[in-house]
Each structure stands twice: as structure tokens, then as C-alpha cells.
Write a structure and sequence with these properties.
InterPro entries: CRISP-LCCL_domain, LCCL, LCCL_sf. It contains 16 helices and 21 strands. It is of the alpha+beta class. The protein folds into three domains: 288 residues, no CATH class; 125 residues, Ferric Hydroxamate Uptake Protein, Chain A, domain 1; 90 residues, Immunoglobulins (Immunoglobulin-like, Sandwich), CATH 2.60.40.10. The strands form six sheets. The protein has a six-stranded mixed beta sheet, with helices on one face. Helix 4 packs antiparallel against helix 6.
Length: 606
């Protein structure tokens, strides 16, 4: 890469640098992907304006190309000018750039060494957890009576959690006794936590680790009763007034030499490195090393993708994800640069302003899991907008801000005489979105990397607002790809549902027959004739699958479910029923409660 310092006030500017700048300017005009006319080739020729609305939309004649007149111009140009004079040869500049990037890479790799495997005081490997890892698997994966999730007690293991687990929430309703929990951390209890609680969030709630991550030990306690709700360390736990077969406690483990999470160190390293590149390098192609550094920061530090469950180190998974996603992202970066970024940064001498506005916006967007975390929209889907409190209002406010920004950008495009071309371009975008909405069997999903790609062409001009908007959109694109990969803009219902509801038929329960025997309280449940498309029925008691019967197994099918409560059991018990199809449990009914005194109160239906 050639470092081109532009010194407008220097009388003896290097001739070769002038030639390079002229060639780049000509290349910019020839290779614009936004259908620009080559105004240099038409110098002195004034095209007639169309009359009426079309003529007014074309803008002023001649067009007013927007350029930034820097504040304190000499101060902002001093460093790149000094660098160009100190290292005037192209080879010297290339070696200097290579040295800076090489030094960054070395420090970056050393900082990642904290993600290598570590052991506890007994020499056993410390397990790396994700923020959503639990001991009790969701969606009935533990099997009948939790057989697949043993052991329940007399066992422990050491763990390491990443940073920022306190804000990780369930995004589809989870049953916790009489409650349907959503949009909050899944932490059930206090001191003793229910087995399906998020381990890392529970460790934060217990004060064993902070939201910056850390290490500790999980101790399996077996069955525990009456899980209380307590607000601690920014997390309010969820109450559960009955029993669950698996509980755990979280304690500190001084035998583990737990390294600090590297994200703060790497943020300082990456921002300083990119800021130096932004200030010292005048060529717009500095975008590429900055893009790679920010991409690496997201992929390894600020918002890394999920790794394999319960492994000893996340580093191999993160390296594999980074290598898989960077190459296609760089292809997109080339298109973004040639069509948008180069027009904004070419000839820009306000290097400090570029660093504050464009690079600052770049990091602001790339750190969206921090900077936009306060917005109550977890996913831009109709389900989330309908269910999450405050989501509709937040979306309305975002749209208002976007309309104001778009109006300002339209004005600048009109001044530059490019409005009609960009209206046509965005007309194609809108047409494509409408076509996607009509395709049967799939749903349109506008990921934030898609938002970045759609809106970036609207920042292809050299104004201060465009520097900020372009930086933020580039950051959103990088965060979306480095964290979530190139997720499809069209997704099936199953992709969007995740662990959510199927919107399936629900069993119609009859009033249970409850009686007392020498063995204890006996409750006999029956249901109306099931629809033909289901195979059987599943029963949850206290959110644990206790029975799964299939209608074809006996002559009269799965006609009922008998539940016996021992005489010494006095806690409430919570029942849900759901059909089974193809070996998979579908949606469950609302909760029905068998109280400790033997009475029944049950919804038992949707």
C-alpha cells in the first residue's frame, strides 16, 4: 500500500506523488459503481436540464460536489505530511506499514494466549462455557425423568465464563413452574440454582464472577425445593416454589489461575493501531487494514461467535470461524470500497476528523453488542416486536431518526446532481425486498449486516455526517458477519422459531379425578380425542418430562396419565401437556396446578 500524504500548502510537492494522486482520481471516476458520469471528460460542456419535476430533481447546474474543509487544516495535515517527507520512497512506506501491522499482529496473538487451556489445582481441565450453557438441556433433551442429564449430585467441575453474560436473555418463553419467562436472564433461585439456569449468569448473581468473565466451580446438589427470587449484582433471579431434580451451587476456586478477559486490552490495542493508520495515512485504501483489524477484534474479543459446548479452549473454534468468514467479507469490502468508501475518503485532508467521526463510528457500530444493547429489540422479527416490551416504540423512534438522516443525505445527493441515480438504486432495493416478501414458505429477515449493505451507498459523499453514518454502518456490517456469519435474508419458519413455539394443536384436558390412597394422592388425567396428525402425548411435571406415550402402543392408545404423589409431599406441582409428532414434542398447554392440599386449578388449554 502506498502512503500518500497530501500537503496542499507545500510548494515543492513530490512529482511522483502528484502523478499517483492524479491516477487515483482518474481511476475513481472510471470505476465508480453508482453510474456516475465522468465529469472530467465533459469539462466545459453543460448538459441541458429537463424541465418540470425531473429537472428540479437533477439538482443545481453545475453540481456542487461536497468536500470537507478541515478545521485547523495545517494541524490535521502535519503528521501525514511529515511522514511523507521523512519516508518519501514507496518501498520505505510499504516497509513502515508492514512493520506497524506486524507489530499489531504479534501483540494481538500474545493477548489471545489467555484463551489457551488452563487447569485447576487438581490438574483437571477448566471447562469453557458459553453464556447460555446449562446443566439441564432445553426442549426435553434430558429425556424422561432427566435420564440424559445425570449425574444430579456428588459431582463438580471448574469453569470459565466469557464477558458480558449478565445481559444474555432468553428470547422465547421458558416454563418455570407457573411462569412463562422471556427477555430476562434465566437464573432460577439463590445460592442453590435450578439445573436449567444459565451457569455464567448464576455465577454473576452469586458474586463469584463479574460481567467481565471469570472462573469458578459448579457443585451439583441433586434435588432442591423452593427456589427464591433475589436481586443481586444486576440480575433478579426467578422464583420457583416446588422441587426440581437437579440443582447446583457456584463457588470460587482459588486453585484456578484465571486469566483476565482480553477484550479491554485488545480494544485499546486495536483502536490505537487503527487511529495511527487513520491519522498518518492519507490514501483511502487504508480502509482495508482497518477493516481487517476491526473484524479480528469482533471475532476474537468483543463479540466472538459461540464455540463448541463445554470444551477446554474456545480458540480453535474462533480461529476457524474467523478464517471462514473473513474471505467472503473481504470480497464485500472491495465492492464497498470501490462504490462508497473511496468517494468519501479520497482527497480528505481532515485526518483527525476522519479518525474521530469515521473510525469512531466504525468502532461504535462494531461494538453494537455494547453500544446498542440498551435498545429493547433483540431480533428484528414480527414475534419480537410483538412480544418484547418497548420494542414497537423503540422501532418507531429509530424510524424517525432514519427519516431525518435520509432527508439530509437526499439533500446532499441533490446538490451533487446524483439524486436520480440513487433514487433508482434504492428503488431496486425496495423492489427486491417486496419480491422477497411474496416468496411462499420463507420469511424476510433483515439482519444488521444487511442493513449496513443497504444503507452504505447513501453515504458515498464527503460530508461530516456521511463520515459518521458510514463508519457506523461499516461497523454493523463487520459485527454481523464476524459474530453471526452470512445468515440468509430469507429464512424458513423453523430457522426463525429456534426453541420457540410451533403454534401446534394443544391437548384438550378433561377435569382430573383426584383421590387419596395408602400410597398417597393419585391424580388421573384424561384428554379429548387427539387430532389424526399427532402420534402421542408428552407430560411435564415441574418442567421435567415424566411421561411420553404413543397412541399406537396399546389397543386404546394413550388414553390417560396417572400421577401419584407420596404422602410426605406437600409442595405444589405444575403440569403441562403437549402432543408428540415424529418423535418430537410440540407445544405444551398452559400450566395446571396440583396444590399441596390436593386441589386442582388448571388451564390445561392454550
Amino acid at each position: 500500500m502506498v502512503l500518500v500524504a497530501q500537503d496542499a500548502g507545500a510548494a515543492n510537492q513530490d512529482v511522483r506523488m502528484d502523478v499517483d494522486a492524479d491516477e487515483e482520481a482518474q481511476l475513481l471516476q472510471r470505476e465508480e459503481l453508482d453510474f456516475e458520469d465522468n465529469t472530467a471528460a465533459q469539462a466545459g460542456f453543460k448538459k441541458p436540464r429537463a424541465s418540470g419535476l425531473l429537472g428540479r430533481l437533477k439538482g443545481p447546474d453545475p453540481p456542487e460536489t461536497q468536500t470537507i474543509n478541515p478545521f485547523f487544516a495545517k494541524a490535521q495535515e502535519f503528521l501525514p505530511t511529515w511522514l511523507n517527507r521523512r519516508f518519501p520512497e514507496r518501498r520505505q512506506q510499504a516497509l513502515l506499514l508492514g512493520g506497524v501491522l506486524g507489530l499489531w499482529l504479534i501483540v494481538f496473538i500474545i493477548s489471545l494466549s489467555v484463551q489457551l487451556p488452563i487447569t485447576d489445582g487438581l490438574g483437571r481441565s477448566v471447562t469453557n462455557l458459553d453464556c447460555t450453557d446449562t446443566l439441564w438441556k432445553p426442549k426435553n433433551e434430558c429425556g424422561i425423568e432427566g435420564i440424559n442429564c445425570h449425574p444430579f449430585s456428588n459431582s463438580s467441575f471448574s469453569f470459565k465464563c466469557p464477558a458480558k453474560c449478565a445481559s444474555v436473555k432468553v428470547l422465547n418463553p421458558r416454563a418455570v413452574g407457573p411462569l412463562d419467562v422471556n427477555y430476562r436472564p434465566l437464573v432460577i433461585g439463590d445460592d442453590a440454582y435450578r439445573g436449567d439456569s444459565f451457569i455464567c449468569a448464576s455465577a454473576i448473581h452469586a458474586g463469584v464472577i463479574s460481567d467481565n468473565g471469570g472462573c469458578g466451580r459448579v457443585i451439583l446438589l441433586g434435588r432442591r425445593d423452593n427456589y427464591s427470587s433475589v436481586q443481586r449484582h444486576g440480575i433478579e433471579s426467578i422464583p420457583f416454589d416446588s422441587y426440581f431434580p437437579l440443582a447446583f451451587a457456584v463457588t470460587s476456586d482459588s486453585s484456578i489461575k484465571c486469566p483476565l478477559d482480553p477484550r479491554n486490552t485488545l480494544l485499546f490495542l486495536d483502536f490505537i493501531t487503527t487511529a495511527l493508520l487513520s491519522i498518518f495515512v492519507a490514501a483511502p485504501a487504508v480502509f482495508f487494514p482497518i477493516f481487517i483489524i476491526v473484524f479480528a477484534h469482533v471475532a476474537f474479543a468483543s463479540d466472538p461467535p459461540s464455540a463448541s459446548s463445554h470444551n477446554t479452549t474456545v480458540l480453535p473454534d474462533h480461529i476457524a470461524s474467523f478464517a471462514k468468514r473473513l474471505l467472503p467479507a473481504l470480497f464485500c469490502a472491495v465492492i464497498i470500497y470501490r462504490s462508497t468508501v473511496r468517494r468519501t475518503l479520497h482527497g480528505l485532508t481532515a485526518h483527525v476528523e476522519k479518525t474521530i467521526m469515521w473510525l469512531g463510528g466504525f468502532f461504535f457500530g462494531a461494538l453494537s453488542n455494547y453500544t446498542f444493547d440498551w435498545i429493547p429489540i433483540q431480533r428484528l422479527t414480527a414475534h419480537d416486536l410483538e412480544q418484547q416490551p418497548g420494542a414497537k416504540f423503540a422501532l418507531a423512534m429509530i424510524l424517525v431518526v432514519l427519516v431525518a438522516i435520509i432527508a439530509g443525505q437526499i439533500y446532499y445527493f441533490w446538490l451533487e446532481g446524483r439524486l436520480l441515480r440513487y433514487l433508482a438504486l434504492y428503488g431496486l432495493f425496495i423492489f427486491g425486498i417486496l419480491v422477497c416478501l411474496t416468496i411462499p414458505g420463507v420469511s424476510l429477515r433483515i439482519h444488521h449486516y444487511i442493513i449496513g449493505l443497504l444503507l452504505l451507498p447513501g453515504t458515498s459523499m464527503q460530508t461530516r455526517p456521511s463520515l459518521v453514518y458510514q463508519g457506523i454502518l461499516l461497523g454493523l456490517f463487520v459485527n454481523g458477519i464476524a459474530r453471526w456469519d452470512f445468515d440468509s435474508i430469507l429464512q424458513t419458519t423453523a430457522d426463525l422459531r429456534g426453541d420457540g413455539k410451533f403454534d401446534s394443536a394443544l391437548p384438550e384436558l378433561l377435569e382430573p379425578v383426584i383421590s387419596s390412597t395408602i400410597q398417597g394422592l393419585v391424580a388421573i388425567f384424561q384428554w379429548a380425542t387427539p387430532p389424526a396428525m399427532v402420534d402421542g402425548i408428552s407430560v411435564l411435571v415441574n418442567d421435567v418430562e415424566r411421561s411420553r406415550k404413543f397412541f399406537s402402543d396399546t389397543e386404546d392408545g394413550a388414553a390417560g396419565f396417572d400421577w401419584t404423589r407420596p404422602p410426605e409431599e406437600t409442595l405444589n406441582e405444575y403440569f403441562r401437556f403437549g402432543y408428540v409428532r415424529g418423535g418430537r414434542a410440540l407445544d405444551y398447554t398452559k400450566v395446571g396446578t396440583l396444590f399441596g392440599n390436593g386441589t386442582w386449578s388448571g388451564a390445561g388449554s392454550g
